[in-house]
Amino acid sequence: MQLISLGIDAGRLTAKGYGETQLIADNATPEGRTNTQRVEFPDLSDLVRSNYENININN
After folding, report:
1. CA-based angle 32:35:36, to the nearest 5?
2. Where are the domains of the chain?
3. What's the rounded Cα separation, in Å, for the pair 25 and 33?
4. Do 43 and 33 contact (CB within 8 A), yes or no?
């Protein structure tokens, strides 16, 4: 996996398969199936920012 080769700990990665429950395109066409087969990464910027702001650098 490329993420692991970039130094991401494999224990921090989770795979979830949603099958046909969360399609974003019509699964009846090759183009639709291509669009539906995807990897999504959550946007964690707000979480990182809030954790960073809560760090007390004086202690």
Report:
1. 85
2. 2-53
3. 7
4. no
The whole-angstrom separation of Cα 12 and Cα 22 is 23
- 11: alpha, beta or left? (left if phi > 0; alpha if psi -120 to 50): alpha
The rounded average pLDDT for each run of 10 residues, N- to C-terminus, in the chain (59 residues) is 85 82 85 83 75 64
- The DSSP code sequence of the chain is -HHHHTT--GGG------TTSS-SS-TTSHHHHHHHS-------HHHHHHHHHT--TT-
